[in-house]
Design goal:
The complex is a heterodimer of chains A (about 775) and B (about 160). Chain A is an alpha/beta fold. Chain A is about 25% helix and about 20% strand. In chain A, the strands form 8 sheets. Chain A has a 7-stranded mixed sheet with strand order 14-13-24-23-22-15-16, covered by helices on one side. In chain A, strands 28-30-29-32-27-31 form a 6-stranded mixed sheet. A 5-stranded mixed sheet of chain A has the order 2-1-5-3-4, with helices on one face. In chain B, a hairpin with a 2-residue loop joins strand 3 (about 135-140) and strand 4. Classes of the chains: A alpha/beta (about 775), B alpha+beta (about 160).
Chain lengths: ~775, ~160
């Protein structure tokens, strides 16, 4: 494949690798060839025929996308012969394409429109009946106008080759061919929005922004994905200070040219009717609007008067916000500053390295021989990272998965062990002690096989996902995995939630470590909940959803004198007793830095100004710091320089605990993590995401035998009780579930105040 | 095995699978759908789902094949399939008159089935590669050539 050849492209000698497609060579050389179906990241279909070119000696025009270059090939892309072929193709494509550009969202950025300008005729010679295609309903994210479709099949190939699950197909033949789903069903890929970018015409468009702006009116603001540790590059398109839509920017080392639906459509949260637009103070059971000055005075007074204080910040907050948050809280004497609010085991607080990472860059994933994933539905936790992992699998990387419930992977894991979280620790100990890990004989059990693979693999990686990090025995799991990795020369990576968990660690938003990892005499969150403080501060997170145990936190909040929330959305006043709400920006309105799980610093600037009196969060924290009588120091750029300087510090990593298992073996264990659109307040307030297939269902998944034991074999619903809260939920029997577990997502406001995500629950007849 | 794919059907699909390398199960879609149609007369999404399950393919790939070939029926049709060629050789030798004769004598149009569920007259068929015996038609995969109205009446009458 890599032998160099020389071809003549429009009379110019050009070097290429043998076997490369002509169109790829032309693209590299800057020679334009019109095309619709070709896409460099998809397989070659050669069905639109728009890229026909003239090749000396060929019997007719040849498609440049499906013609490998050969030494001495002479190619003309602009000869009369080639152009005649291209014009003829265009004439066919336009036969059935409606002339509705003035009302088409694609108008102005349409590949067909652009090429028709050059290759199309003014008048159609076709006067017979044209086809009309009924539009399938693909769900809340992708709109369809299938009469406009030219059957390039980019969307079909995307779902099969990139999203990993073919959801769209081409049905019928000839003039009756249609792109769709055949039976009525919505798309449920976490990357479905990418078909909007790929569609070269206006057949597939963004449903949330349908008919809301013309492409040429939009301003373009580079930004970042603000929901996961990938930090996808994207562009926010705005119109007169309003976010209209969001598209990916090409960054081959991060998101390539794709974008998760969560990053693409979460901008809708900014226009949610429940936006918090000005400071609010509680007056009896309602909110009263107050000025920033009043609010800051009130907050400063509460901070000064209170005894013990605790602050929780969402791990998607920027480096600047995290630094200022812990600075404010610690200046006021708080001993509990934490961003890992879904965690419940804080033992061995200083056993973790300074800043969490993947253990490698995303580009290096494909170099790994074996990747072990413990406790994550990666497709939903970090969609683009899962895509990159899938690409690695396609190039030969083995992926071993240990999860508490089966999951719909879009690649074939080498092995997937669905095991109760109660036996994870035992499993890890078995692997650790297995002689196979030291390269000796191996058995056929999962643990022995995995031990052997880790022992013999040159380049292995062990990932701890959110379900492992938030496990009631997380510290013991971590200690065991750390030891196993040391024994077998495996790199250890973690997959914490949020867009800036590394930044939160670096700036010291953890109880036991200050900025740069400085040892702190902190009080961890679980101890703090047992011994409730006078004052709580919540920043960018919902205490009813973004915590390990909403019921327990609710009780701790009831004991507090003051609760202050830096929030973007107005919470239900009945639900959580805030005393003061300070408005902060949400998706697309924030400026600052995020550090992704590779350790890559990326900056973003607000695409639109926030509504009402919303202030930049870090600035609001500085104001409050001043109001409490402390000097903030480190203005603007020097704060960033200071935080970057924290990276190089040497941090003492302590020996982790090895005993003291907490997770009990009794009863039915609830287990779960937040579903894809319930991981942060912004996603929860993005309407289209909540309406989508992945955003909706709340179900209890159990083994049929467990259902039988509870007398629920034929039941469709059951009553689940935990910590005094009872909910009626639909049942799904799943023979791959562990028998002592019920899987139920967390982070969903519809769950009310159910207790810990890993707690014992009671299941009864409705 | 499922309610739809009886053990006999599974055996027949396995025979198709046996003709292709083990990793190319998708190659057996066409054969499997033919077996299912032979059994039930027409395809439904549920029957195609069963084939997809059996072959381990996404259902959509089976729908694609099932909707592409005009040989597959998606509505209930008559027991016997009659396909009359009207492509060029047959057309020159009176294929269209043959079709018109059948339509008249059965009282149905091309693409319809007789009310008694006996005969399904397919939509106009393209060349069936029987030009030397034009005009021709195919009845349940059997070719009948050099047709005349009398000959046709006999053939149709013989269908139970």
């Amino acid at each position: 494949m890599s032998d160099p050849v020389t071809i003549t492209l429009n009379g110019r000698a050009v070097e290429a690798a043998a076997g490369e497609m002509l169109i790829a060579v032309a693209d590299r050389e800057g020679v334009p060839i019109p095309r619709f179906c070709y896409h460099p990241k998809l397989s070659v279909a050669a069905n639109c025929r728009m890229c026909l070119v003239e090749v000396e000696g060929a019997r007719g025009p040849v498609p440049a996308c499906a013609t490998p270059v050969m030494d001495g090939m002479e190619v003309q892309t602009r000869s009369e012969f080639a152009r005649e072929a291209q014009r003829a193709t265009m004439e066919f494509l336009l036969i059935n394409h409606p002339l509705d550009c003035p009302i088409c969202d694609q108008g102005g950025e349409c590949e067909l429109q652009d090429l028709a300008l050059e290759y199309g005729s003014d008048i159609s010679r076709y006067s017979e009946a044209r086809r009309v295609v009924l539009d399938p309903d693909l769900g809340s994210l992708v709109s369809t106008d299938m009469t406009r479709c030219i059957h390039c099949t980019r969307c079909v190939r995307f779902t099969e080759e990139i999203a990993g699950e073919q959801e769209l197909g081409a049905f019928g033949r000839g003039e009756f061919m249609k792109i769709g789903t055949y039976i009525q069903r919505a798309m449920n890929s976490e990357l479905s929005g990418c078909v909007i970018d790929l569609c070269p015409v206006g057949a597939l468009n963004a449903r949330p922004s349908r008919m809301s702006a013309r492409a040429w009116e939009l301003d373009n603001h580079p930004g970042l994905g603000e929901h996961d540790g990938v930090g996808s590059r994207l562009s926010r398109h705005t119109l007169r200070g309003r976010q209209i839509r969001c598209v990916p920017l090409v960054e081959e080392t991060i998101n390539e040219s794709w974008l998760s639906d969560r990053d693409r459509f979460s901008y809708q949260a900014a226009a949610h009717p429940d936006r918090l637009c000005w400071p609010l103070a509680r007056h009896r059971n309602s909110w009263v609007r107050v000025s920033w000055e009043e609010a800051l005075d009130q907050a400063a007074a509460a901070l000064a008067e209170s005894g013990e204080k605790a602050g929780l910040i969402h791990p998607s907050s920027t480096v600047e916000e995290c630094f200022r948050f812990q600075q404010l809280l610690r200046s006021c004497g708080a001993r509990t500053v934490e961003h890992r609010a879904r965690m419940s085991d804080f033992r061995g607080g200083r056993q973790h390295p300074h800043v969490p990472t993947l253990g490698c860059t995303m580009d290096q994933l494909a170099e790994s021989d074996v990747i072990v994933l413990l406790g994550s539905f990666l497709r939903h936790d970090q969609p683009i990272l899962n895509y990159r992992l899938r690409q690695a699998v396609n190039s030969g990387t083995e992926v071993w998965i240990i999860n508490p419930a089966p999951f719909d992977w879009n690649f074939a894991p080498t092995q997937e062990a669905v095991l109760s979280p109660r036996i994870w620790l035992t499993l890890l100990h078995t692997i650790e002690r297995s002689p196979a890990a030291a390269g000796r004989k191996s058995g056929t059990r999962f643990s022995e096989q995995l031990a052997q693979r880790l022992g013999e693999a040159e380049n292995a990686l062990f990932w701890l996902g959110p379900l492992a990090l938030n496990h009631p025995d997380a510290s013991l799991l971590y200690a065991s995995v750390r030891n196993l990795c040391k024994q077998t020369g495996t790199r250890l990576g973690t997959l914490p939630e949020g867009a800036n968990a590394p930044g939160a660690w670096l700036t010291g938003c953890v109880a036991h470590r200050g900025p740069g990892g400085a040892a702190m005499d902190g009080m961890d969150l679980s101890a703090r909940i047992q011994e409730p403080p006078d004052l709580w501060v919540f920043y960018g997170m919902d205490p009813a959803c973004d915590v390990a145990d909403p019921a327990q936190l609710r009780r701790a909040l009831a004991a507090a004198r003051t609760t202050i929330g830096f929030q973007s959305f107005i919470p239900d006043p009945e639900h959580l007793p805030y005393d003061l709400l300070l408005p902060i920006p949400t998706v697309g309105e924030r400026s600052g830095h995020l550090i992704n799980l590779e350790g890559r610093w990326q900056s973003m600037t607000a695409a639109v100004p926030p509504p009402g009196e919303v202030r930049d969060g870090a600035e609001a924290l500085v104001e409050l710091l001043r109001a409490t009588g402390h000097a903030p120091g480190l203005a603007g750029a020097s704060l960033v320089a200071h935080c970057r300087g924290l990276e190089g510090r040497t941090v003492r990593v302590e020996k982790p605990p090895r005993s003291g298992k907490r997770l009990s073996d009794k009863g039915l264990l609830r287990v779960g993590s937040p579903s894809i659109y319930q991981q942060d307040p912004a996603s929860r307030h993005a309407h289209a995401l909540q309406q989508s297939e992945l955003g909706r269902d709340l179900v209890l998944r159990l083994h049929p035998e467990t259902l039988r034991k509870h007398g629920l074999t034929n039941a469709t619903h059951a009553r689940l009780s935990q910590d005094g809260e009872t909910l009626e939920l639909p049942l799904v029997a799943d023979p791959r579930m562990p028998r002592d577990c019920v899987y139920l997502v967390t982070g969903d406001a519809r769950l009310g105040l159910l207790g810990n995500a890993f707690g014992e629950v009671d299941l009864r007849h409705v | 095995m499922s309610d739809i794919l009886t053990s006999d059907l599974c055996d027949r699909i396995d025979a198709w699978l046996g003709r292709f390398p083990a990793e190319h199960r998708r190659s057996a879609v066409l054969g499997a759908l033919r077996e299912v149609q032979k059994e039930y007369g027409h395809l439904t999404p549920e029957r195609m789902d069963a084939v997809a399950d059996y072959l381990g393919l996404p259902a959509i790939q089976v729908y694609e094949v099932g909707s592409f070939y005009t040989g597959f029926q998606h509505q209930p049709v008559g027991r016997h399939t009659v396909a009359v060629c009207t492509n060029i050789s047959c057309w020159l030798r009176g294929g269209e008159e043959i079709l018109a004769h059948i339509e008249k004598s059965l009282g149905i149009r091309a693409g319809e089935s007789t009310e008694d569920g006996r005969i399904f007259l397919k939509s106009e068929e393209e060349c069936l590669a029987g030009c030397c015996g034009a005009p021709m038609m195919q009845v349940d995969h059997v070719y009948h050539e050099n047709l005349t109205p009398e000959k046709i009446d006999k053939i149709l009458e013989a269908l139970s």
